[in-house]
Amino acid sequence: KGPNKVGFMGLLQPFFDAIKLFSKEQTYLLNANYLTYYFSPIVSFILSLMIWVLMPYYFNLISFNLGVLFFFCCTSLGVYTVMVAGWSSNSNYSLLGGLRAVAQTISYEVSLSLILLSCIILIMDFNLVNFMKYQSIIWFIFLMFPLKLCWLSSKLP
Fold first, then answer.
1. CB 1: neighbour CB atoms within 10 A?
2. 11 located within any domain
3. Residue 149's Cα: distance from chain center in Å?
4. Phi-psi region of 60 (alpha: psi -120 to 50; beta: other; left: phi over 0)
5. How many domains does the chain have?
6. Domain annotation covers residue 50
7. At what angle do helices 145-155 and 92-123 cross, to 10 degrees?
8. Do the domain assignments include residue 93?
């Protein structure tokens, strides 16, 4: 039958798959700091869900005036969860991998924030609803194409 087993048209299938994965046998690291090792992905997931509060829908439930700033804060806090997960495993290789991921994420966040800062300067507002209103005239992707080319060239080795 496929994914149509749980719920209407299989809509609840991902949730029950997650419950199944969490209920499977866990392997415990002997030297790891247990709480921080297992709670850092949960904190990262909560931070990523908090970003969805900012999404401007058609009927606009929440109009958050500092939405872009909140987006920057949530994405930059997500870096710490990767670093804490690498540190709490008490393995040098995990720590080095976590620090490498942190450095790479920060380098991408700097260029992303500069591109979004140029959009903020265009509309002079931090509200994401106004981003949506201004893009009804012309999409910012066309205005930011030269910046996108600079961002892509910075990704190359």
1. 5
2. no
3. 22
4. left
5. 1
6. yes
7. 170
8. yes
Cβ(13)–Cβ(3) below 8 Å: yes
With beta carbons less than 8 A apart as the criterion, state whether 93 and 36 touch.
no
| Mean pLDDT of the region 8-26 | 81
Mean pLDDT confidence for 13-36: 81
Q: What is the Cα–Cα distance from 106 to 82, expressed in whole angstroms?
A: 12
Report the 10 Å Cβ neighbour count for 81: 22
Average pLDDT score over residue span 120-128: 88
Q: What are the tokens at 151?
A: 């961002």
Who contacts 19 (Cβ-Cβ below 8 Å, separation ≥6)? none
Nearest-angstrom CA–CA distance, 131 and 134: 5
Gap between the Cα atoms of 130 and 120, Å rounded:
10
**Residues composing the chain:** 157
pLDDT reported for residue 109: 87
- pTM for this predicted structure: 0.72
Q: Write out the residue range of the structural domain in which residue 143 sits.
A: 33-155
Q: Is residue 15 part of a domain?
A: no
* Mean pLDDT, the chain, whole residue set: 83
Instruction: Give helix 67-88 / helix 34-51 axis angle, nearest 10°.
Output: 160
